[in-house]
Write a structure and sequence with these properties.
291 residues; 5-stranded mixed β-sheet; alpha/beta
Length: 291
């Protein structure tokens, strides 16, 4: 187990020296741990590319298995307190669900179970799925038409309405945005975002239309841009509900038939789950009934 912990720590810190400092080992001990692993696995785990430590193909294949093994080891060491809701709980969710759905759940969970260390990361829906399968996180969330990843158990929490929105100073008719000489920007988030992919595919298939696209780093930045009259966006209704009700943003009228998008909670199948994970899942399911 020490060898696997050494491998994971080198990857996390980016160097043998930093990993040795974190673990309290000498450089020679670190080297012997990795050499023992490489002998057992039949090849090198690391190589240098542009003076940066990188995983080899063997290292990349070993990583998800090492993550799973270390997670299991942590559960074994915590067996003596298995009925206490404690330990570490790792969660991955897209920004929209983190801000507009999970906030009350996270607040209630931390108040009720203060001995649980919550680690929350934001990523694209496909990245969150992969991190659940690879044991990087315990629970993942996604906005998708359907979860297609193997080795997952998915819980459909809610159908999320995705809407076209613009500022009150722009046109509310979608036909004005599909014209050939339209110069409005489609303001959106990262290219791997599920509802962005759905919108762009639909528009190209239906109209052969492509838009001037401005890609921003957060939903709040997107809203600020379209509030300023830059263009339009395609976002979960829950993220723009407040601005629409205040009259700062308006819905764009359309008759398009977009795919339904659902909020999913995902865990890895055939994996032992901690009591903290079970309690968080129960709490999420309870909150989702009121969404």
């Amino acid at each position: 187990m020490r060898h696997f912990i050494t491998f994971k720590t080198i990857l996390e810190t980016g160097s043998y020296t930093s990993a040795a400092a974190r673990l309290g080992y000498t450089q020679s001990t670190m080297t012997s741990h990795i050499q023992a692993l490489e002998k057992g696995l039949g090849g090198p785990l690391f190589h240098y590319s542009q003076k940066k430590l990188q995983l080899t193909i063997i290292g990349e294949r070993a990583l998800p298995l090492v993550n799973e093994l270390l997670t299991t080891y942590q559960h074994l060491t915590n067996l003596k307190t298995k009925r206490e809701v404690s330990g570490e709980l790792r969660i991955a969710a897209p920004e929209s669900l983190t801000i507009y759905r999970l906030g009350p759940i996270l607040r209630q969970f931390t108040q009720r179970y203060p001995n649980v260390k919550l680690i929350l990361s934001n990523g694209t829906c496909s990245k969150n799925q992969k991190e659940v399968v690879d044991d990087v996180v315990d629970i993942g969330f996604a906005l998708l038409p359907k979860v297609k990843q193997d080795h997952l158990i998915e819980y459909c929490l809610q159908r999320e309405q995705i809407v076209l929105v613009t500022s009150k100073m722009r046109s509310s008719q979608f036909g004005d945005y599909t014209k050939a000489k339209n110069d409005d920007y489609f303001v959106t988030n990262e290219s791997a975002c599920s509802y962005r992919v759905m919108f762009e595919k639909h528009m190209e298939t239906t109209y052969g239309a492509k838009f001037n696209t401005m890609e921003l780093w957060s939903i709040e930045a997107i809203k600020k841009s379209i509030l300023g009259g830059l263009g339009f966006s395609f976002l979960p209704y829950i993220t723009v509900k407040k601005e629409i009700e205040k009259g700062d943003l308006q819905l764009i009228n359309h008759e398009e038939q977009f795919d339904n998008i659902y909020a999913y909670m995902m865990v890895k199948s055939k994996k032992w789950r901690s009591l903290a994970a079970e309690k968080f899942m129960e709490m999420t399911m309870e909150h989702a009934t009121t969404w």
